[in-house]
Design brief:
Elements (H helix, E strand, L loop, with lengths): L2 H17 L6 H8 L3 H7 L3 H24 L5 H16 L8 H8 L6 H24 L4 H21 L5 H13 L2
Helix pairs in contact: 1-2, 1-4, 4-5, 4-7, 5-7, 5-8, 5-9, 6-7, 7-8, 8-9
Length: 182
């Protein structure tokens, strides 16, 4: 990937995460990235494609971090529970603004929009990772446990953002313990 494109994607991701897609205009992206508008349009036909690509890059980075962080636990149950430790760590970062993918999906009404598609793929990847952990744990119904953990994770993220309750990760972890009966 070229340096201008890397700068463009990094600036776009940072801006939309901090302020939203609609509030982030192309002029601001040009200014923050230092990439000429003409150059942007050699890579992307429109802003939606640019934002979708920036979110796709965030997905890869976030999932790698999340898997590495929760994967430090020794047991399958510990790995499932460690997903909430990862969330808690994230919630206390100074730039926490909730889930970029939930935020993006909330701004985009059209389910066929490329931005919405990236958000959906992210949630599917997260659920698939949780399913893998549920299988390793020996869950009677790994699909159901993965779905329940996804709801707990997304709920904790939303409560942390909207209510300002950073302890939502710990509270969700307590509910997860009940699901695992630990």
């Amino acid at each position: 990937m070229t340096e201008p494109r890397q700068k463009l994607l990094a600036a776009t991701e940072r801006l939309i995460y901090a302020g939203g897609i609609t509030a982030t205009g192309m002029d601001r992206i040009v200014k923050e990235s230092g990439v000429a508008r003409k150059t942007i349009y050699t890579y992307y036909r429109n802003k939606d494609e640019l934002v979708a690509d920036a979110l796709a890059k965030r997905d890869v980075r976030w999932m790698n971090w999340f898997i590495a962080r929760s994967g430090k636990a020794d047991t399958p149950a510990g790995k499932l529970l460690a997903t909430f430790d990862a969330l808690e760590e994230w919630f206390f970062t100074p730039d926490f603004r909730g889930c970029a993918f939930i935020n993006a999906a909330g701004e985009i009404g059209d389910e066929r929009d490329p931005i919405r598609a990236v958000a959906k793929r992210h949630k599917i990847k997260l659920r698939d990772y949780l399913h893998k952990l549920a299988v390793a744990y020996g869950a009677e119904d790994a699909d159901q446990l993965a779905a329940e953990f996804l709801i707990l994770i997304d709920g904790a993220i939303t409560v942390a953002l909207v209510m300002g309750r950073k302890e939502a990760a710990r509270e969700a972890q307590q509910l997860a313990r009940k699901l695992l009966k630990t």
